[in-house]
Amino acid sequence: MTTTTAIRVRGLRKAYAGVTAVDGLDLDVAHGEVFALLGPNGAGKTTTVEILEGYRRRDVGEVSVLGADPARPDAGWRARIGIVLQSSGGHDELSVGELVHHFAGYYPDARDPDEVIASVGLDEKRGTRARHLSGGQRRRLDVALGILGNPALLFLDEPTTGFDPEARREFWALISSLADGGTTIILTTHYLDEAEHLADRVGVITAGRVVALDTPDRLGGRDQDRAVVRWIDDGRPHTEHTSEPTALIARLAQRLGGEVPGLTVSRPTLEDVYLRLIGEPATPTTSIETLEPAP
Ligand SMILES: Nc1ncnc2c1ncn2[C@@H]1O[C@H](COP(=O)(O)OP(=O)(O)OP(=O)(O)O)[C@@H](O)[C@H]1O
């Protein structure tokens, strides 16, 4: 293992009573990277992440997380890992301040509890009992507890499910600031915009295998996909798929004598590419197939 590798997985397999959940998975995540795992329900994401966290035993394969085998962690390994699970709860009668201060006592190198509360935007809720927090505020508390031990590696499982758009943006800023501070982050999410916004790289898992792995803007050859150019000509909408949109627009501008009416240029979204990778048809408006020949 090189010193830049936070996570190294080779040939990971796990089956539950004959049902294969992870089927020969390979993965490398560098220190300081934000890595998003995407995949449909039942693809094997949670099983993989729980093996990395040391909460689930693998059947076969090599796994190294922060230099240790999660199935046989050395002393102090767990304190270097922060985990924010999909659903949380418990200690509902304690206030935000009481909870964060209480759990800080479990870590050898805990961050300042009051600073952590402020960093997740819960200053005003310090005296509020956990059971009186909104869903988004509860999630922030979960993150506060996850980062309290100053982890080198943070696992976030669907962290913004149920957030309103503003809360999601604020949460993204929090995660970005953790990443800027050097924390390695493994994120599972069903929100493609979240992966696009936060992740340095994205891995798509289907049927227990990584089927694509790249930066969000290059995933599945996205950067090579043709652009969709739309415009109005003679009062009729036109669409053309081209790898040279600039040349097409220059020709149109010349022919139409300046401004091209109704001009839009779009590329396949991360969602389009993701749906193609997992075998689902893209929506017609963003299809990368040619809709009609050039006029
Ligand atoms: N404890 C278990 N016992 C038996 N089968 C399980 C268990 N946990 C997961 N599975 C099965 O393993 C497969 C992978 O499940 P997993 O939870 O890892 O998928 P996932 O990608 O996290 O899905 P989701 O997006 O729905 O959370 C599924 O077929 C699931 O039914």
UniProtKB/TrEMBL annotation:
<dbReference type="GO" id="GO:0016887">
    <property type="term" value="F:ATP hydrolysis activity"/>
</dbReference>
<dbReference type="GO" id="GO:0046677">
    <property type="term" value="P:response to antibiotic"/>
</dbReference>
<protein>
    <submittedName>
        <fullName>ABC transporter ATP-binding protein</fullName>
    </submittedName>
</protein>
<dbReference type="InterPro" id="IPR003439">
    <property type="entry name" value="ABC_transporter-like_ATP-bd"/>
</dbReference>
<keyword id="KW-0046">Antibiotic resistance</keyword>
<dbReference type="GO" id="GO:0005524">
    <property type="term" value="F:ATP binding"/>
</dbReference>
<feature type="domain" description="ABC transporter">
    <location>
        <begin position="7"/>
        <end position="232"/>
    </location>
</feature>
<dbReference type="Pfam" id="PF00005">
    <property type="entry name" value="ABC_tran"/>
</dbReference>
<keyword id="KW-1278">Translocase</keyword>
<keyword id="KW-0472">Membrane</keyword>
<dbReference type="InterPro" id="IPR050763">
    <property type="entry name" value="ABC_transporter_ATP-binding"/>
</dbReference>
<dbReference type="InterPro" id="IPR027417">
    <property type="entry name" value="P-loop_NTPase"/>
</dbReference>
<dbReference type="GO" id="GO:0005886">
    <property type="term" value="C:plasma membrane"/>
</dbReference>
<keyword id="KW-0813">Transport</keyword>
<keyword id="KW-0547">Nucleotide-binding</keyword>
<dbReference type="InterPro" id="IPR017871">
    <property type="entry name" value="ABC_transporter-like_CS"/>
</dbReference>
<comment type="similarity">
    <text>Belongs to the ABC transporter superfamily.</text>
</comment>
<keyword id="KW-0067">ATP-binding</keyword>
<keyword id="KW-1003">Cell membrane</keyword>
<dbReference type="InterPro" id="IPR003593">
    <property type="entry name" value="AAA+_ATPase"/>
</dbReference>
